[in-house]
Specification:
Elements (H helix, E strand, L loop, with lengths): L1 E5 L6 H12 L3 E3 H11 L2 H12 L5 H12 L8 E4 L5 H13 L6 E6 L2 H9 L1 E4 L5 E3 L17 E2 L6 H24 L3 E5 L4 H12 L5
Parallel strand pairs: 1-3, 1-4, 2-3, 4-8
Antiparallel strand pairs: 5-6, 5-7
């Protein structure tokens, strides 16, 4: 089964991607994983990407797409995959469609994790990170009365990218870039929305229920 997972920051894509891919015995493929593998492996594409990453710039589409093409061509992705973090925009989606068509393949389904903005802001802005062990706690979801890590005694702080104003900006970027992508897949008749609120296991159940008709 060939799946793309989309959703706003804080929707739980990484967590759900892991569960779904494991259930279906297909590789979970994220652009972050691909970048790290190419950079650590010293590939030509990795060297190109590292130049941009070291400057804090976005890796250009052509480099990202070339890496994704190579990864999808590996043996473990022959019977299916779950893409998390790619495509991020309509041009990338169109290119992915062409790549798969070259292999006489197509996407089976695009799962959109649906969660409203207020919930995203609450999830992300409520996170606190331990300055010693790196564990993430949440002011609403974890039973804590202080700013001390229960695991190691370190101090809990709010990362800059978890601050409310930054989260709101990330949401605006997501809406600008990805709303057209969601519509693109809706027009392809392969988009299925999943309610991403509530316990993680409930969201997983909804996703697997949506996939069941496609399982062989």
């Amino acid at each position: 089964m060939r799946i793309v997972l989309v959703g706003p920051p804080g929707a739980g894509k990484g967590t759900q991607a892991q569960f779904i891919a494991s259930h279906l015995s297909i590789p979970k493929i994220s652009t972050g994983d691909i970048f790290r593998a190419n950079v650590s492996g010293g590939t030509e594409l990795g060297r190109q990407a590292k130049q941009y990453m070291d400057r804090g710039d976005l890796v250009p589409d052509e480099v990202t797409i070339a890496m994704v093409r190579d990864r999808l061509g590996e043996d473990d992705a022959g019977d299916g995959f779950l893409l998390d973090g790619f495509p991020r925009n309509v041009p990338q989606a169109e290119t992915l469609k062409k790549i798969l068509a070259e292999w006489d393949a197509r996407l089976d389904i695009v799962l959109e994790l649906v969660v409203d903005e207020d919930e995203v802001v609450r999830r992300l802005s409520g996170r606190r990170t331990c300055d010693k062990c790196g564990r993430i706690w949440h002011v609403d979801f974890d039973d804590k009365q202080d700013d001390i890590c229960d695991d190691c005694g370190g101090h809990l702080f709010q990362r800059d990218d978890d601050k409310k104003e930054v989260v709101m900006h990330r949401l605006e970027v997501y809406k600008h870039d990805t709303a057209p992508l969601v519509q693109f897949y809706a027009d392809e008749h392969i988009l299925v929305g999943i309610d991403a609120t509530g316990p993680v296991e409930d969201v997983t159940k909804r996703a697997l229920t949506a996939l069941r008709p496609l399982e062989k």
